[in-house]
Fold these 4 entries.
Entry 1:
Amino acid sequence: MEQLEQKIRQFATMAPGGIVRVDSFLNHQIDTAFVQLLAKEFARRFSGLGVNKIITVEASGIAVAALTGLEMGGIPAVFAKKAFSANLGSDAYYSTTIHSFTKGIDCDLIINKKYIGPQDKVIIIDDFLATGEAILGLMRILREAKAEVKGVGAVIEKTFQGGGDRLRERGILVESLARLAMENGNIAFVGNPK
Amino acid sequence: MEQLEQKIRQFATMAPGGIVRVDSFLNHQIDTAFVQLLAKEFARRFSGLGVNKIITVEASGIAVAALTGLEMGGIPAVFAKKAFSANLGSDAYYSTTIHSFTKGIDCDLIINKKYIGPQDKVIIIDDFLATGEAILGLMRILREAKAEVKGVGAVIEKTFQGGGDRLRERGILVESLARLAMENGNIAFVGNPK
């Protein structure tokens, strides 16, 4: 997506460990008008698949997931929580453990069983697709819930961390709005694989 | 807001400790079309104040804050983070410690100094206003950043936990879309104070 590549060229910064920082517009300060453009693009790419729900992970996936749900006709967006709180009550939950490479810790993803089930045709939306840990964790939950995964949408895919390929090898439709490669320590953009 | 009161009557459940669970439409599963209505109402109530930025806290404030930013002309929404991660890099941050009553722990609120400053006229938007801990924490950060707080918007104010009054006593404009009182263990709705 050309506008996103421009935005990344202009505002992204690199941090050690292959970290691409886009907190000026995507995952700390949210450029709401720009994220709406991203959501419209996801809605366009995932149209016609009968999607009735968006799934994401707190916190940085929420804005783009909610706006994508709105652009796809006002369908709900469910975000997996990373910790139990009293707000979750005594209901039954799906949970799975993933490793966060940016935080260096394991954490749980938790979704209330009420909000996902066999009637759901979902897309998973997130800000980043890196190793794919979070998305594969969500997919384990969705499989247990017998929901159908129609695709995965990432704002930014870091191709050098392999998660996109892991998903595509499983036959998952992956739509990344920008795909980054690392060439001599610099960011380069690559197209979506056919 | 009548539509919100109806939604709460229909879908909210009570948990011990005065907890009002609205995770079916607001803070776990997000009813995106409905949250857009809430955002339009905040935009209406805070119009004409010159607001150029929305501030909230991860995670459950993000959807309504982002949509409110969009409804107010596409202004940015900044969410305070609760933990440092490698994504935050080596920039300078504002931080303050608050107590989370629903989680029973202290946590930090963290905002990159780049994204808030004396040029900002902000409203703070959150899903709940209970004791006011999170919002008072954000206000400490905003004062340090010399940003101007034009108001506080809560989707649901729990009047029996006192946070709304603490803010109003300080002269803060507080707009709550639903104000809940507890009467004999049941939820009752009360109007906004004049």
Note: Chain A has a mean pLDDT of 93.
Entry 2:
Amino acid sequence: MQDQIEFYCEFASPYGYLASTQIEAIAAAHEREMLWRPILLGPIFKTTGAVPLAHMPLKAEYMVQDIGRFARLLDEPIGWPSDQPTNGLYVARAFYYLDETDPESAWALYSACYRRYWVDEEASDTIDSVVEVADALGLDPDDVRDGMEMQETKDRVRQETDAAMFKGVFGSPYIIVDGEPFWGLDRLEQVNRWLETGGW
Amino acid sequence: MQDQIEFYCEFASPYGYLASTQIEAIAAAHEREMLWRPILLGPIFKTTGAVPLAHMPLKAEYMVQDIGRFARLLDEPIGWPSDQPTNGLYVARAFYYLDETDPESAWALYSACYRRYWVDEEASDTIDSVVEVADALGLDPDDVRDGMEMQETKDRVRQETDAAMFKGVFGSPYIIVDGEPFWGLDRLEQVNRWLETGGW
């Protein structure tokens, strides 16, 4: 079996969200499995010294325009939630708790929260909001709630973020294909071409 | 006549260099003229608080890989000069001095220096090196040297950088098409499509 496509994303990143809506089709076209890896950019930015785009004059204004234009080009709906930047900690915890036993449900929950926040503009930054989405998906809400509060889950989020940074991940989305790193929504075409050609 | 394509670039930016090798063909395909606008990102970064990519852990390493990969995809040669980041001040001065009377020669000189630095890895960050390139292009070397030292020329570089920032320019390359801003080498396909369709 060929390697999975590693997909790193931060919940607060609209570029990460939009890429998440595209990458599965690219993977499927090349018969690759996905390895979803939500991370927290906060601790990574502390190490790299990066400043969130939304906090930079000029760049922040441009980003709003760029995101809307890119989403229209992809024909993907996107909103502009007023509570940015949001906190993806609890979604990440729920993801990694479920990922231990059921990776498919883990991503189903994460991506449902992603859509709820970035399309429906509903806050998804509390334990209750994440549990509500889990419930709507038919997952056991009490189990998800308990799982999010386990020390092992909290540790796992930290470990996965550290492991990502160790691999060079510094932004969202960040995609690794057969060891080759691609950063940014705007690199999806190169990811697709890399899968098609084996590199250039 | 339709509006010119405004192209802002920083001499020290390899993404700016690579985009400069592509944008003329895009403009020509849509019968547009180019308005070349070299700028200095240093003063702009002071305002926006941005950190040069080359100074950021992880991002800097990724950039080296990304630039090489992107250049191969475009089939454009690129080197990796050891004296990065270089200083584009004198090239910008020569450009704006010539631009007053002869915009075509101004860009011929700037782009020759761009290639000399990014392809041939030869320093182009002194008055002498820029004058040498001007001489090789058949321009009057003494005239270019004198022009670079005129107060009006120095002021013009500052004014153009300020004017760019006022328009929202915060990085390199930065391209404005009919009032629509596009940042980055990776937006050239969107620039092309925008010219083709008039927007989406």
Note: The CA atoms of residues 146 and 177 of chain B lie 34 Å apart.
Entry 3:
Amino acid sequence: MSQNITLALDGMGGDHAPSVVVEGASLALERYPGTRFIIYGQTQVLAPLLSKYPKLSQASTLEPTESVVTSDMKPSYALRNGRQSSMGLAIDAVHKGIADGVVSAGNTGALMVISRFVLKMLEGIDRPAIVSLMPTLNGESVMLDLGANVDCNQEHLVQFAIMGEVFARLILGKRHPIVGLLNIGSEEIKGSDTLRQAYGFLKNGPFEDRFYGFVEGNQIHQGVVDVVVTDGFTGNVALKTMEGTAKLIAEFVRRTFKSSWMAKLAYLLSRRSIKNLGLRLDPRRYNGAVMLGVNGIVVKSHGGTDALGFATAIGFAVDLVKGQFRQKVLAEMDKIRNTHHIAPIQL
Amino acid sequence: MSQNITLALDGMGGDHAPSVVVEGASLALERYPGTRFIIYGQTQVLAPLLSKYPKLSQASTLEPTESVVTSDMKPSYALRNGRQSSMGLAIDAVHKGIADGVVSAGNTGALMVISRFVLKMLEGIDRPAIVSLMPTLNGESVMLDLGANVDCNQEHLVQFAIMGEVFARLILGKRHPIVGLLNIGSEEIKGSDTLRQAYGFLKNGPFEDRFYGFVEGNQIHQGVVDVVVTDGFTGNVALKTMEGTAKLIAEFVRRTFKSSWMAKLAYLLSRRSIKNLGLRLDPRRYNGAVMLGVNGIVVKSHGGTDALGFATAIGFAVDLVKGQFRQKVLAEMDKIRNTHHIAPIQL
């Protein structure tokens, strides 16, 4: 692999592909000069788009593909029929070592299933996990799994914790991230056996005093931990609940500012501040869910994102490749195996 | 039982007891004239408080108790040692038929464990469930279980659905509530076996076309369903995540309004509207989690609530007693047993 990073982009995935993909890559290139892109998709639409960005054109190769994995395709169908699609071939590029990572705004389930099938899992990791950033009162944290696995046992949770900790180091830039397990309280009767066993392992495990213990739902945004670990069912419900609550409040605020002429005037005066507030909560800043655990860097951009959001997703891929995410996770897993302080869990 | 409703109040439970209990009862009495209260607690502090409210004094009896279940007591300890406490004796009053229901702002776990032990379960219901109101874009919905059970099987979820539907009829005043099961998507690979089996039963079950199917976390606040059914782990995480997200946004809004003199001026102009927004999201309006499934009406007020919140909790108890909650749930369970359209689940 050269010094420069090469990323495979699914040129056709997402609601606003391919324009958002090309524009996003152009923005990312400004932030990460030297990055190279292989863009998979229909060249007749991609080529004219690309020609508008001379720098990006120089840094990119177009690879023609015909078929597309659509957003309503079932993952199992996409796995059988989508291997020659823009998504399938972009993943293949990582498998073949042509690219260091792949970014797609396409069908999440398909991306996960094809990635897992083509790239296989990282040694020692049994299940992939979806991780993303969360806004907190004092910055950002990471949370996983956000929906890859419905049922998780204690070993899966421990593996998620290890991957999440490395992810937080590379993406949040924290040297010593604090890790917490999501639960519904700290009382004796609370939590499942699975959670208690994962707790038991992590308590005596690799993070030492950086394992915070259990955290509750209201602490996710408090920033008491840098890494929130949970199963994919709970994580997905929590993530979507956040979205729902934020929308509810936004709607109530909107109605409030329409409720009187004084409120309307107030809105005019505070527009700029409100816009700043919007930026702080801007989903584009939090765009990019990474599929951890597969043997390759796979980043999922939100399907409805704009170019800025897609550029953020590309940034995750660059940071994980540069930071040698996979090698670091493997090293952590080795450390655990070798130190053998793993009484409650066989890893 | 007389025409008038009698409620047992735990006079000592909660952060601001006993004053909030007495003041809350006084507010509730204005809304529900004719209600009678038996207030359990230390008479030397309760009597002088009560003397400030002549109407309430007439409608109330004081029952002296010495011990108190504290907020940090483990439920198992409270069960062994708290039976003569203000909480324990208030629950006992329901068991003995002296009171129609009990309201406490004390230790949630203790209230649940003692209630279950003393009152036993409603026939046909295996597990208690905690239910509460949720604000939605178009009004309110109810959600359960919010934390009574970590693990739930399909039968428990179906029982929660039945209790939640009756609860929504009585508390939201909806004649035909729509019921949904919380899941992480509707795709084939999504959701646990438990959820799919509960889905299968409810699809052909008592609600007919009022069973909406699966709902996701972002739909809880949308008001697409009146009853959101989930296990206690997921429900509790979702509830606390909402609290956390609301607090995060509130803090960002606060910082926004402090960020410039124009924003500060805007705040002054919009103060009243913002106050209205506050009322709409006022946790006191949503105060009162009801322990459904035990053989008696048991309402838990938030420990930190004020008098208005405690009055809301009392209102739940009144509505459930008047609406004959238990009899209606038993009738629904009978209907299910007799119509035998219960292929997938033995109820």
Note: Chain A touches chain B through 67 residues (CB under 8 Å).
Entry 4:
Amino acid sequence: MAQPGHSWFVGGTVGPWQVCAMRTVVGEGLDAVPRLARLEEPPAPGAGWGLAGVSSHLRYTSRDERGELARLQEGLGRPWARRAALIPIRKSDAWWALAQDERLGIYRQSQHTAIGMGYLPAIARKLFHSRDLGEPFDFLTWFEFAAEDEPAFDALVERLRATVEWAHVTREVDIRLAWAG
Amino acid sequence: MAQPGHSWFVGGTVGPWQVCAMRTVVGEGLDAVPRLARLEEPPAPGAGWGLAGVSSHLRYTSRDERGELARLQEGLGRPWARRAALIPIRKSDAWWALAQDERLGIYRQSQHTAIGMGYLPAIARKLFHSRDLGEPFDFLTWFEFAAEDEPAFDALVERLRATVEWAHVTREVDIRLAWAG
């Protein structure tokens, strides 16, 4: 059943993105695959694993931050951004049982937005929400950058993983990709 | 495709809830039906209209409010609560384009939580999120109360509809039900 507005990331043997590395950061991994495709409809049965998400409204970003992000960030699909990463994440039940102000407090303490902002515009990013879709992960984040910016991207994700917020991450897989379309 | 954790409200000719009244408050209505069922799986084709939602984490409620709600509110299914209401709501694209602090500001200014709290424990309430599922409504709220509390419920929804927050509601249907199971 196709759902308007949903996106699928499909790991298998087809797709324009070549999988360069898959690393399970915490929790259960995903089957190793050689290729990844981004689809706007569910994958055919047997195509490999598929992760669905939806691009949704802002959950923690303030008006000021949104303005700053809009000024700094660039969209996906820049022709020279031939490296990408897909990082599916699940957070603990305890995290989701927190009230909005408690989650926002941890998010701000962790400087999540500020950390990401420091790597703009080089690292383009798009967040997909999965939790309410009954998916195995809560979020799928898709990043695109130039090959020479991969060390900066490594630094970005390591800084995020060192935050208090990341203590609530119970499953994370880091998938690195190169455009082969 | 059944989705774990999703709920369906199905308007048609079967189900334990008799539809007493359906009123389109704003925007497009829903087809009039005599019965309503709550399902944990998608309805069979031709069963009538079906609205899906997911019970999700708190979006605006603070820790203090959550504690107060937990202290005051009662669950669904109280045997004497033989009246119910289903109120599907959609908000404007402009609402969803607001940042989190802007939406929270309007929500607080409208005293949304405080208004609902004033009718506890008489009016039990459960919120289902639909927007990210690609549904026609953004929220489905289900209320249960005793027959003698229907005037109080009328007052509750009228107070909410008079708030600044409700200026962002572009579609709302008010469905009143009586237990006939």
Note: The two ends of chain B are 27 Å apart (CA to CA).
